Amino acid sequence: MAPTYLGVEVDVNDPDCPVNSVRNLLHDDEGYSDLDNDQNSDPNPLDTSMFQPELTVIPLPSNIGEVRCRELGLTNLMKEEISLREGQANDALHAIRVHLGDKALIFHNTVQSAKSQASSTRAWTRVRSVETAVNLNASIYSKCRSQLAKLPDHDLLKKYLPLKKEDLKASSAVADPNARGQRDTTLSWFWSLDVQGDTSGNDWMTEFYWVNWLRTKALRDRWNEEVILVKHEMQWSINFFNHRAKQWLGHMRNATSAGLTGHTCYAARQSHIYEQLAAHAEDSFRKMLVQLEVPVSVTIVGGTG
């Protein structure tokens, strides 16, 4: 089948061809066949018991390799596979999001409200079923990403990040996005991916994106307000230190006029301490303000459209 899809230049009889790599490995295994040595070792062409499709390497460009594909002039096929892998990753992530939403809803509506052992058992059975679907799609996504890493001329790995175990946990922000105490809750990175048609025919996902878009926008606005307040607090701290330094300088002058040498020395020392604090704060805040001037990109979940 390889020449049909990859061209006549691909020799399926080549021992270095990936299509035959698994086949050669199986033939090299001494314990693979259960036949006696004195029997005819020639396989029956009608016998399909030797065929194991799960061990067959599909001759895709990511399996053949970039160098071999360029030698065979299959660069267009590499671009086609990149496009297909991108769609596969989007489908897997969409399925993960839907199943995580179902899992969170089951926890919120069924598991927590179960009042008998039977209902609790049924609820946890549903949870395990959803977890199986989540793990399956996570495996598909991870495999898809590993295949994308073998293909050249794309930057999709920056968009499709590795999945971590904590990313696959059900969050109360998914089950009940309007609940209290979640204003600082942030979701995993794949919830913010813009997948075309992600909300078509799914009112729950549409409402979820709306709520989390507004929540994330409010969180960003609070961060911007906090930056403004912190800048003012920096200046207020410097002003306070300068004010205290002037106060102790006035006390020093009064003590000098009264001829109180000890009071004069103490007031001068306190004034010098506050002057040093003001200078140190101004220098530290100036360095920090330079970092605050760098714009920070904030990804907002979903959209208003």
Gist?
The chain has 305 residues and is mostly helical.
Layout: helices, strands, pairs:
Layout: H1 2-6, H2 18-28, H3 61-64, H4 66-71, H5 75-111, H6 117-148, H7 156-159, H8 172-175, H9 203-258, H10 261-292
Helix pairs in contact: 5-6, 9-10
Describe this entry's structure for a reader.
With 305 residues, the protein is an all-alpha fold. Among the domains are: 122 residues; 88 residues. Helices cover 63% and strands 0% of the residues. The chain contains ten helices and no strands. Helix 5 runs antiparallel to helix 6 and helix 9 runs antiparallel to helix 10. 16% of the residues are buried.
Query: What is the residue-averaged pLDDT?
Result: 76
State the helicity in percent bands.
55-70%
Q: Note the run of SSEs as H and E.
A: HHHHHHHHHH
Query: In DSSP terms, counting alpha (H) and pi (I) runs of 4 or more, how many helices?
Result: 10
Structural class: mainly alpha
Low-pLDDT ranges? 1-10, 21-40, 294-305
Largest sheet: none
Number of strands: 0
Strand content: under 5%
Shape: elongated
Rounded Rg: 33 Å
Distance between the ends: 46 Å
Key features of this structure:
63% helix, disordered C terminus, 0% strand, elongated
